[in-house]
Every structure is written in structure tokens, then in C-alpha cells.
Design goal:
The complex is a heterotrimer of chains A (642), B (169) and C (105). With 642 residues, chain A is mainly alpha-helical. In chain A, 74% of the residues lie in helices and 3% in strands. The relative contact order of chain A is 0.07. Chain B has one domain: NADH-ubiquinone/plastoquinone oxidoreductase chain 6, subunit NuoJ (Four Helix Bundle (Hemerythrin (Met), subunit A)). Chain B contains seven helices and no strands. In chain B, 25% of the residues are buried. Chain C has one domain: Helix Hairpins, CATH 1.10.287.3510. In chain C, 74% of the residues lie in helices and 0% in strands. Classes of the chains: A mainly alpha (642), B mainly alpha (169), C mainly alpha (105).
Chain lengths: 642, 169, 105
């Protein structure tokens, strides 16, 4: 009950709020917001409390992993899957992030969504998302993880398309769902492969998909580990928005901003990272896949960062930044430094949630204006939002002692230290770009002169306490979150790494220390340099970036249009699929074969047969008697001859 | 050829010919009269089979009561010429019917051929009214009572059905 | 020498003739008569078996068949009267309510 309670409370919230939404729709009068608040926010906070109480023993001691069997999902012969939960160090970290950041964002939503007519429905979806995410991180086997994986995908779809009256937003939800489906297909193939390899070796009671069973029998999977993990990684590509399946995440910004913060920055998109950490024993057996993961992660990070440089929509910048930071995490996973990836996952959850919620606060204040060219100088109107945003920006750009510095620096150091020099160089470059675009965003939004219309300026206001309090809390976490993993050379102790105990870490020697020192100096210096450049470009000499864009017209347009990836996908994948669907699947298969031959054909065939037989049904009694005679004679003949 | 044999062939011949008359004569009145002849012939065959009581009953109820009823109805309905006229079937139908009838007859005749019962256990008084009465009123008393009820029911049913004021139209 | 099979053949012939009448004739009254013919055929075989097996029960069965025929004729004729009153006809060709109107044309 200790474990299931964690996910049953949000589930209860989802059910209650769903009922409220339905009742409200039926009575044409929404259920009072207070009720929705009590259950929609109270139950996630309760889940947080349970998570803390379940996680505390793990933080202060090292107990055995907690296991709980909710129900027996399926038993087919030897094959068996349970609805089991598992709590160990990785899932403790994840449930604390999910319920912690999740509760904060629920609280924030009470302010942000205050005037939305579908208030109860929003909280029902959000609670359901929390449930699914907790199933994902608590499940003790691949199928439970997949259940959560699909659940969060569904909630993501529902919430991106929450304002579905706008066709563009509905289309964004659909796009996210379809692209995720491609990744999920890879994940499924991986699961089936694992089943097929492990099935001959399961006993009566074991489940082949159980993580602990898989770990004990990892040797059986070693032969195919490269391909299996590659399929799993395809799933991660979809969910965690990596090249080539990242295209849905920027569009997902169509959803309400708290949703972007919770689902598309802090929790759901990190599911791929969590999955690799959870299956690290399997990925350790597949060095080629790891190499592939690292390269994809780094390329994605760099690629997304360049796009973020020139975007003008405040949420789009943050979306590409998220893709980029996820790339960093995959880089860390790919070089085998799983705990570093998890560390960055945690700090990223704090500062990116803070950034998104800050952006939400701005959008809320500006009445759904999202273009940073129409902002500026908002610091005067909304100081809390501005300063928390600055703290989070300091954190993401890697300036000590804020959280991002520790985790990002650790990734870069591990990359160089493990000998991936090219990836490391790209990583440092990406860090510089990150710092630049984040400071550009901050300066354009909160500093300088206000470029909004005077009418809009009059309405700008600081957000209510329910939103600012959350911002302050998240900014605090962004500021201090990194102290969980202070590197050795700064005289600290890497609590998180020791505690997670994931993967192998290279020895700390004098050479490594020098390398780390050098890298820190380089990245901090670079970040400051980028920040200064951004300051010059966007506050002091606003004509410079315009001149720069003019002289590098080609690359500017390329970045502004996001490398035309959407257009390329549209031309190479979407349109051919649509065309083939229309002509072949709809025209030929559906209309001709299914409608024509199978449906109408079978009907016509039966009608034809009926018209043959119905001649017997002439309605004349004599004829019936005649048939009777025939049958009787036949029966007698048969009896006699036999 | 004994007298028994001659009598059998006479009765059988009359029965079959008049039965044919029932089936083929276009006018129902002729059919009814042919049926009377058939029933009398069968009653004759019953006599040859030492079923004296049954032969009497056959003549009394069938020829006497039922056939009178038939003729009565035919007269009562006062069928028009059109009603009396038969719609003839086509040649294919006739051929098919004949074939079926022949097949049915041959099959049944074959079944009869299979019955290997010979001998003549006839005794004096077999099938006279006292033997039959004893059998009916001992072993078959309940079926007999039921038959009585059935007749009553059919009587009431026939009256109710044919009553004119039931059809309010 | 006339024996059981001769009687049985006559009985079968009566039965088949009756059946042919049922099929052939359109007049309900004649159809009913043909049924009487069939009953007589069966009755004859009951009595013939009774005689050649030396068992009186065959005659009892024949007796009940005659009772049944009487009841059947009474009810059957009543129904015919009813049909005639409603339809003005006793031709089976006019009584085709069971006909499949859609396909049999």
C-alpha cells in the first residue's frame, strides 16, 4: 500500500475531477473551483508526502528495494506479467521529481488556468498524467513501464490539444501522438525481443519482463543486446524528442504552459533517460548502441541549440532548449555515465520547469502574447517572475554555483575523460550557444525598453501568489539543486552518484583533476562570454544582430526555419503516406476491396443465394408438401440403403 | 385361386381405381363420391382381414358421417365455376411429381418387401367386437377416454370456428 | 396366394395416391379428402399387420386412427369454411401469404 498509494492518490484525483468535468458539462454549470482545487492539487501533494515517506529510508540508509505486487496482469502458460511496483534509488529520485515538481505545477495551474471553462477537465488530465508517469517510473517490469509510457503519451496528446477548438493546436497534439507512436513501435519490438529470448529460461513464477529477472539473466540477452537496446532507444527518441523524432516537441508548446513545464520539460520527456538508466545493465552490454546514443544526443543538443538562437517565440526557444538539454542527457547516458545523466535530468527538471513557468507567467500577464520582440523591460512590472527567470537562466547557462553548472560540467568532463574528444568539443560549443540564447531570451523579455503597445503595457501585472510562490520555490531548487553532486576537486562529495550506484566511473587521478579544472574554467568563461555577447547584442547595440543576420542571410534563414526539417518530413514522409493512403489504402483497399468486395459483396452474394432459394418459398402449400415428400422419401431411402 | 384371393383383388382394384378418381377428378363432388367407393373397398379389405368391427366403423363414420360432411360443405360453400376449375400444372411439374410419386412408391414397396412375416395365425373370432372391446377397455382405456375428450374438443372447436358472428367484419 | 405383402402394397399405393392428391390438387376440400385417403392407407397396413401377427393391438390403433380422422375432418372443414368466408376462395393458389415477395418474381 505504501507504493501503490503514491500512484493511487493522483488516480483518485483524475477520477474525481473527471466526474466533476462530466457533471459540470451535464449541468451546464462548472463544479466550483474550490472542489477541483482540493482534490486536483491536494491529492498530488498527498502523493508527494507518500513519496517522501517511502523515499526517506533510501536517502538515509540503504534498504532493500521495496516491491509491491498490485495484481497479476496476465498468465499464459509460462508467460507471466504482474502489475508490480519496484522502489529503488533510481525510482526514488524519479518519484520525488515527478511528485515534487508535479505538485508545484498543479499549484501553479490553479492560478494560470483560473479563467478556463474546462478547469476540472484540465486537472483530471493533469492528475492522470501524474498517475501514468508514476506507473512508468515505479513499474517493476517492462510492460508496466510501457503502460505508463503509453499513458503519459495519451495525456500529452490530450493536454497539447487541450484547446482543441484551434485546429493548429489539435494538429499539434495529433503530431505528438503520431511521432511518439513511431518510437513506441521500436520500444514494443524491443520488449517482444526480450520476451522471445528469455521465455525459454523462465521458471514457473518468474516474469521474463521483470527488471530484476532481466538483470540476473542479462547474459542470455548479450548476443542481441545491441539491436534490442537500439530498439529501446528508438522508443526513447520518440518520447524524449531526439533526432530524428524531435519534431513534435516544439509543436507541443500549443498546450497550456504549465503542461509544457510539467510534461514537455520536467518529466515525460525524460522518460527515455530513465528507461536507459533502468536498463543500464543491458546497455552496458551494447557498446555500439551506447556510442550511437551519445552521438545522437550530442548532435541533437547542438542542432537544437542553433535553432534556439534565432527563435522569437518565448516558448519555442525553451522547447528547443529542452530538446538540446535532453541531448546532453543522452550524451551522458551514451558515454556510460548514467548517474550523471540522471543528475542532469534532476537539475534540468528544476530550472526548466522554472523557466517554463516564468514564461507562462509572462504569457499570462501579456494576455497570450508569446513573441519576445513585443516584450522587453518586463522586470519593472513583474519583478518576481523576472528574477526567478534570471536565476534559472544562470542555472541553465552553467554559471556556478547554480544547479546546471554542476551537472553540465560533469557531463562535459566525463565526456573528455572517457576519451570522446569530438563529442566533448561539440558539448562545450553547445554550452556556449545555450548560454547565448538563454541570455538573449532573458534580456529581450525582461530588460531594456518595453516594446509592447502602450495599451498592453497598462495591463501587464505580476502574477498571483499561487504562481509566484511556485516560481520562488523552483528558483531556489535551481539554485541549490546542484549541491547534491559537487565534484571532488571543489572539495565536495558527489552524493547522488554514490547513492545511485549506476554504471562504472573512471578513477579520479591528478590528470583527471587537471582536466576538470580546465574544463570548468573554459565553460564558465565561455558562458560568461556568451552572456556578455548577448548583453551587447540585445541591450546595448540592437543593430548588431540585425547586421549579423543580414550578412549571414543563408544560415539565419536556415535556423529561423528550423533547418526546414518539418518541410522535409512533410515532403518525404507525410505527403507520401497521405497520398498512398488516399489512392491505395482508401481507394483500392478500403473502397474496392473492403467496401466493395467484402461488405457489399458478401451482402450481394447472400442476396443472390437467397433469391435462388426463395423460389422454393412460393407460398403454395402444395409445393411445401411436395418438398416434404421429397425429404421423407430421401430419408427412407437413406435408412433403407444404409 | 381361392375366393379370398378373388375378393382381395376385387376390393383392392376398386380401392385403387376410385382413389385415383379422388385425386384426378376435377370436380370435388366427384372426388367425394370416389372417396366413398374407396372407403367401402377398404372396409371390404378390413373384412378380409377379420376386422369386422373396424369395417363397420369405417362404413358408419367415414362413409356415413365424414363424407356426408364433405359433401355438405361443398354444397354449402356453393363454389363458383372458377373455384371448381383446377389450375393445371406444367409438364415439368407433372413429370417431377410422377417421378417423386413413383420413387416414393418403390421405396415403400421395397420396405414392404423387407417384411418377412408369413403364416396365417388367424383364429375364429379374431377381431370381432368383444375381443376388440376387451382390449380397448382394459389396456387402452385411458387413450380411449382421451379420444373421447378429443372428439368433444374438436366438436366444440369446429362449431366455434364456423360460427358466423365470430367474424365481425 | 394373397398374403401380408399384397395388403401392404395396396396400403402403400393408397398412401402415395393420397400424397399425390395433396400435392396436385389446389382445392382445399380435395386436399383434405386426399389426407383421408392417406390415413386409410396407413389404417389398412395397421389392420393387415394385426391380422398376420395375430395381435389385436393393430386393430385398436386403426380404431383410434378413425376417431382421429373424424376429429380432423370436423376441424379441418370448419377452418375451410372460415377461410372461404375471409378470402372468398378455397384455392391454395390464393393462399400464398408465406410467399417471398421480394425475390420470387
Amino acid at each position: 500500500m505504501q507504493l501503490s498509494g503514491i500512484l493511487l492518490w493522483p488516480l483518485l484525483g483524475a477520477i474525481l475531477n473527471g466526474t466533476f468535468a462530466l457533471v459540470g458539462a451535464k449541468r451546464k454549470r462548472p463544479v466550483p473551483r474550490l472542489w477541483v482545487n482540493i482534490f486536483g492539487v491536494g491529492l498530488p501533494i498527498l502523493a508527494l508526502a507518500w513519496s517522501v515517506s517511502a523515499g526517506l529510508p533510501f536517502i538515509f540508509a540503504e534498504p532493500e528495494p521495496l516491491r509491491e505486487n498490485l495484481f497479476s496482469w496476465m498468465t499464459v502458460g509460462n508467460f507471466r506479467v504482474d502489475g508490480g511496483l519496484l522502489l529503488d534509488q533510481i525510482s526514488v529520485l524519479m518519484i520525488l521529481i515527478v511528485t515534487g515538481v508535479g505538485s508545484l505545477i498543479h499549484l501553479y495551474s490553479t492560478g494560470y488556468m483560473k479563467d478556463d471553462p474546462a478547469y476540472a477537465k484540465y486537472f483530471a488530465y493533469l492528475n492522470l498524467f501524474l498517475t501514468s508517469m508514476l506507473i512508468l517510473v515505479l513499474g517493476d517490469n517492462l510492460l508496466m513501464m510501457f503502460l505508463g509510457w503509453e499513458g503519459v503519451g495519451l495525456c500529452s496528446y490530450l493536454l497539447i490539444g487541450f484547446w482543441f477548438e484551434d485546429p493548429a493546436k489539435a494538429a499539434a497534439g495529433k503530431k505528438a501522438f503520431v511521432v511518439n507512436r513511431i518510437g513506441d513501435f521500436g520500444f514494443l519490438i524491443g520488449i517482444f525481443w526480450v520476451i522471445s529470448l528469455l521465455m525459454p529460461h523462465v521458471g514457473d513464477q518468474a516474469s521474463p519482463l521483470n527488471f530484476e529477472f532481466m538483470q540476473q539473466n542479462a547474459g542470455l540477452l548479450a548476443g542481441s543486446a545491441t539491436l534490442i537496446t537500439a530498439f529501446f532507444f528508438i522508443g526513447a527518441m520518440g518520447k524524449s524528442a531526439q533526432i530524428p523524432l524531435y519534431v513534435w516537441l516544439p509543436d507541443a508548446m500549443a498546450g497550456p504552459t504549465p503542461v509544457s513545464a510539467l510534461i514537455h520539460a520536467a518529466t515525460m520527456v525524460t522518460a527515455g533517460i530513465y528507461m536507459i538508466a533502468r536498463l543500464s545493465f543491458l546497455f552496458d552490454l551494447a557498446p555500439q548502441t551506447l556510442q550511437f546514443v551519445a552521438v545522437i544526443g550530442m548532435v541533437t543538443a547542438f542542432f537544437a541549440a542553433t535553432i534556439a538562437l534565432v527563435q522569437n517565440d518565448i516558448k519555442k526557444v525553451l522547447a528547443y532548449s529542452t530538446v538540446s538539454q535532453l541531448g546532453y542527457m543522452f550524451l551522458a547516458m551514451g558515454i556510460g555515465s548514467y548517474s550523471t545523466g540522471m543528475f542532469h535530468l534532476m537539475t534540468h527538471a528544476f530550472f526548466k520547469a522554472c523557466l517554463f513557468l516564468g514564461a507562462g507567467s509572462v504569457i499570462h500577464a501579456m494576455h497570450h502574447e508569446q513573441d519576445i520582440r513585443h516584450m522587453g523591460g518586463l522586470r519593472r512590472f513583474m519583478p518576481v517572475t523576472a528574477w526567478t527567470f534570471v536565476i534559472a537562466t544562470l542555472a541553465i547557462s552553467g554559471i556556478p554555483p547554480f544547479a546546471g553548472f554542476f551537472s553540465k560540467d560533469e557531463i562535459l568532463w566525463e565526456t573528455f575523460h572517457r576519451g570522446h574528444t569530438i563529442l566533448g568539443v561539440l558539448g562545450v560549443l553547445t554550452a556556449l550557444l545555450t548560454s547565448f540564447y538563454m541570455w538573449r531570451l532573458t534580456f529581450l523579455t525582461f530588460f531594456g525598453k518595453c516594446r509592447a503597445s502602450s495599451e498592453a503595457q497598462e495591463h501587464v501585472h505580476e502574477s498571483p501568489f499561487s504562481m509566484t510562490s511556485v516560481l520562488i520555490l523552483l528558483a531556489t531548487l535551481s539554485a541549490v539543486g546542484g549541491f547534491l553532486g559537487v565534484p571532488h576537486i571543489l572539495g565536495g562529495h558527489h552524493y547522488l552518484r554514490d547513492w545511485l550506484g549506476l554504471g562504472q566511473h573512471p578513477a579520479q587521478d591528478a590528470h583527471a583533476d587537471r582536466l576538470e579544472m580546465m574544463l570548468m574554467a573554459l565553460s564558465v568563461g565561455g558562458a560568461l562570454l556568451s552572456a556578455t555577447t548577448a548583453y551587447l547584442f540585445y541591450l546595448k547595440k540592437p543593430q548588431w544582430p540585425r547586421r549579423l543576420a543580414a550578412s549571414f542571410q543563408g544560415i539565419y534563414r536556415l535556423w529561423l526555419n528550423k533547418y526546414y526539417v518539418d518541410e522535409v518530413y512533410d515532403a518525404t514522409v507525410v505527403q507520401p503516406v497521405k497520398r498512398s493512403s488516399e489512392s491505395f489504402f482508401y481507394g483500392l483497399i478500403d473502397r474496392l476491396l473492403i467496401d466493395g468486395v467484402l461488405i457489399n459483396g458478401s451482402g450481394r452474394f447472400l442476396a443472390f443465394m437467397g433469391s435462388l432459394v426463395s423460389r422454393l418459398q412460393g407460398g403454395r402449400v402444395n409445393a411445401y408438401a411436395f418438398y416434404f415428400l421429397l425429404a421423407l422419401t430421401g430419408m427412407i431411402v437413406w435408412v433403407v440403403v444404409r | 385361386m381361392s375366393g379370398f384371393d378373388i375378393l382381395f383383388f376385387v376390393f383392392a382394384g376398386f380401392a385403387l381405381v376410385s382413389a385415383m378418381g379422388v385425386v384426378v377428378s376435377p370436380n370435388p363432388v366427384y372426388s367425394a363420391l370416389s372417396l366413398v367407393l374407396t372407403l367401402f373397398s377398404v372396409a371390404g379389405l378390413f373384412l378380409l382381414l377379420q376386422a369386422e368391427f373396424l369395417a363397420v366403423v369405417q362404413v358408419l363414420t367415414y362413409a356415413g358421417a365424414i363424407l356426408v360432411l364433405f359433401v355438405f360443405i361443398i354444397m354449402l360453400l356453393n363454389l363458383s365455376d372458377f373455384e371448381l376449375m383446377e389450375v393445371r400444372m406444367g409438364n415439368l411439374g407433372k413429370a417431377l411429381l410422377t417421378l417423386a410419386a413413383v420413387v416414393a412408391f418403390i421405396t415403400l414397396a421395397f420396405v414392404v418387401h423387407l417384411t418377412r412375416i408369413t403364416g396365417d395365425p388367424a383364429v375364429e373370432g379374431f377381431g370381432d367386437i368383444s375381443t376388440l372391446g376387451r382390449e380397448i377397455f382394459t389396456h387402452y382405456v385411458i387413450p380411449f377416454e382421451i379420444a373421447g375428450v378429443l372428439l368433444t374438443v374438436s366438436l366444440i372447436g369446429a362449431v366455434m370456428l364456423a360460427k358466423k358472428n365470430l367474424t365481425k367484419e | 396366394m394373397v398374403e401380408l405383402p399384397h395388403f401392404l402394397i395396396v396400403s402403400v399405393a393408397l398412401f402415395v395416391l393420397g400424397f399425390v392428391g395433396v400435392i396436385l390438387r389446389r382445392n382445399l376440400i380435395v386436399v383434405l379428402m386426399s389426407i383421408e385417403l392417406m390415413l386409410n392407407g396407413v389404417n389398412l397396413s395397421f389392420v393387415a399387420f394385426s391380422r398376420y401377427l395375430g395381435d389385436i393391438q393393430g386393430q385398436v390403433a386403426g380404431f383410434f386412427v378413425i376417431v382421429l380422422a373424424a376429429a380432423e375432418a370436423a376441424v379441418g372443414l370448419a377452418i375451410i369454411i372460415l377461410i372461404f368466408r375471409r378470402r372468398g376462395s378455397v384455392q391454395t393458389t390464393r393462399l400464398t401469404d408465406l410467399k417471398d415477395e421480394i425475390h420470387a418474381a
